[in-house]
Structures are given as C-alpha cells and as structure tokens.
Design a protein that fits this description.
alpha/beta, flat, 12% strand
Amino acid sequence: MYRILLADDEGIMLESLKNIISSNYGNECEIHTAKTGRVVVEEAEKYPPDICFMDIQMPGLSGIQAIREIQKFNRSVVFVIITAYDKFNYAKEAVNLGVMEFLTKPVNKKVILEICSKAMERVDSTRQKRSDDLRIREKLETVVPMIESGYINNILLQDDFQTYQDNYRELLDIREEYGYMIVAEFGDSTENGVLTNAVGASVKANKFYSTFREIAQGFFECLVGPIMGNRIVLLVPYRNSRESYEERVEVVTRTRNMVHKLESRIDSKFRCGIGRVKEMGSTMKESFKEAMIALRESTSHVIHIEDVPAAQKYDGEYPRDLERRYEKRVMDKDVAGALSCAEEFIRWMEKQQGVDLEDMRIKILELVMGVEKKAFFAGTVKYAISYRRNYIHEIQEYTDIEGIKKWFLGKTSEICSNMESAREKEAVSIIEKAKSYIRDNYKKDISLDEVSREVDISPYYFSKLFKQETGGNFIEYLTEVRLRNARELLKDSGLSIKEICAESGYSDPNYFSRIFKKYEGVTPSEFRERLR
C-alpha cells in the first residue's frame, strides 16, 4: 500500500491525477488531496505520505515552502513537482530539496504513470533498507551482549588481554581511552551490609539479566558483563584520565538512582561499588578490584572507592584466599576471626617443604606489616617507620614455632584493638572538621554539598556519616548553630531583629521568625521581651 498526496490549486488537475493513478493502481494506493500550501502540510502531518505530487504556485505557502515544512517532520517523502512555470530557479531549489522529478504542465498519462512507478520503487527501496536495518539491529541485540561479556571477562581473567583489546574496541565502537568499573552485587536481603542468599540470587539473575541490562544502560553508556555469582560488572567508558569531585558525586548519584530503579523492577536487593578511572585494557582490572574493595569496606548501598580509601594487596606465594580472609577479619576488627586465620596460616607454613623458621619470620612480618599498611591507608591507624623499630628484634628472640606464633597472634590482636578506637576517631575527625566549617560559615548560604566538598567525601556518604555520629542531620545542626547565635545576639546586642536575622545566616526575616518560633516556642521579638 502506498499513500499518495496530490497538491494543486486546480480542481481539474487534482481529479485528473487522482483518476490516472487510481485507475492503474487501484487498491494499492490511498490518495489524499489538497488545494493550498497550508492544507498540504496539515494533510502530510495527519496522513504521512510516501509520495507527494506538488504544484509550486498555490494560495498561501508555495509548493517549495510546503516541501520545506514537510521535510521538518518527515524526511522520507518522495516529492514530484508538477508546475506550469518552467523557471531555472524553481528547478534548482527543487534539486536542493531532494525532489525526485521536476515536470512542467501539461503532462500526459504515460509520464505520470512512469514517474509514479519510479517513485514507488524508491519507496520500496527505502522500506527494504529500513527492514534490513531493523533485522541487523535485532541480530546485534543478540550478539552485542555476548561481545560485551567476552570483553569484560577477558579484562578480568586474561593476563595477555592487550592482544585482543583493539579487536573488541572496534567491534563495540569504544572510542574513549579510559573507563571505570561498577560492581553490582545482589541478594535477597541486606544483613550488616552483606547481601544474603548469594547462590539463590545467582540463579534468579538469569531471569532478570535482560531487565538489569536495560536499566543499567538507561543510566550509563556502559558495557554489561556476565553474571558472576551474585555480581554483574559494568564497564563505563570515560573521556578523561580522572574524575573531578563534581563528576565523582554525579556518578554516585546516578548509581544510587539506578539501584532504586533496579529494586523497583527486580525482586532483589542491590549494592554497588565503584572503582577509579583507569586506562582501557588490562589495567581496567584495577578498577574492578577497587570496586570490590569499596563493597567490602562499607555497608552502604552505593560506595565509591574514594569515599572508602583503598586497601593494599599482597601478591605472595601463599594462599591468597586465606590472606584476604585474614585482612578482612582484621579490617572488620574481628579479633577471633583474625586470630583463627593467623593460626591457619601458621599451620600452612609448617606443611611447606623447605620452609624454616627464618622464612616463617619473614612471611609473618609481611602479613603484619601488610595489614598495618592497609589500616594506615584506610586512615584508621597512625603510622611512622619508627613504630616498627623493634619488630625484627622481637620476632628473632623466638627460636621455635610456638614463640613465633605467639608474637604473630599478639600483633594481630593489637592491630584489631588499635583499629577499634582509631576508626571511631576517624569518623569523629571528619564530622568535627565539618562542624568547624559550619560554625565558621553559618552566616553564609552554605549547603550540604558545600560542606561535603570541604571534607572531600560525597554528599550521600557525608549525610549518612553526619547523622550516624551526631544523631541529627546537617540542616538540624546548621539551624542549631544559627539559632544559638541569634539567641546570644537577642540577649546582649542592640541590633534590630532584621540585623540579627542577617547575622544568623537568614535572608528572609519572616522565615527566620518562623524557624525561631518553631524551635524556641516564641518569636524573636517575644524572646527579647522576656529578657527585659
């Protein structure tokens, strides 16, 4: 079926064209007519034509103007101009507009049918191309997720991945030189920051993977990796080698919004860790590790590695899983768990052939100094080179495995204990810095975002930490500081209410009065009167 629009101000011409086309093509065509430029544009909007025979000289808009208007909302129409004006400028303008044919009246039936047939062929060709494009797109929708999964898998698992890097980037049309990883973790519920039923969640993920992919790519122009246990990895190509503070906050905000939408569409709970920007290729694995550390080191739904300082990893000859467990127990301040891992490590070394007491001492020193360094970079313990001055002497005094074990367990317990008090001090330090900034700047129009920037953590994480440490939110504390100042000024100064309002950080005296009454039970004027 072809939809044809005939536009001419002469009724005889319209009827003649309509009869010629309908008598030869019958039900293959749906024909509409118009006698003015305005009407032809309106008809084209209501009944989008495949082919349009257009006269140039019509009341109101000319045929050329009408073509321009139609092309604004429909670029696929095949235009044929039929006019009594054989002017070069008209023909030139028609060519510029992509008109298929420029005919001068009178035009015989044979020519009309030939042109109509040619226009139909062009319409068929356009439809076929559109159909082919859709078919290719459908196939790509099946293939692209597999290529994306392969790319991310190779980044994480292949040490010699650089060999295939360019091939993948070409297939996926990745032009950015940098990127970062987001690790999305899912489970049935959250308990102490850990998602439960990882195995069951992994099975369910096969059902919701396509929905997850659609939502993730609605928030980020990203590649979506395969299901890995109860995790899915996103790779977000990025234009710069690092993020600014504002960009980092924006990524955290977008990720939080993504998590909310995932949980509204999928029957699972989600957490996301975000790594730093890295160069595309094998170094991208480091961003993945950072995203995983961010998940482990926090109980938040969304956490950026910059908000929870990254841990350092030891790449030794001993069981990595055991080392990771040992580090995690120490960082969790789990004394019993850390001591259990330490004893297991001693037993493992005892079974290794060729390992003597000196080898054990070195390995234990590496482990102890490794977790101390990790704790230092996490900002939870103080550190100086001189603090370890006696380590070698102390451990060499023990001449048997039991003595070395005693030293190892003692140091492990000591580190956990130090971290218990240091972590609390760290959070308090950040909040005290924020409070100090608020006290120094309460007269200004300061916001949570501004204070978050001052202490260099994202607004969401700062808001959570502030409430956790103070028991109230940022606005409540700022209001308390401002009203405390207002009370003092009302007691001891001769300033007017309006002046006190400005000195307390409020620009609107009416709002100041409402806030003051809400917290004090009386207006500023009544408060002052009581003191007299």
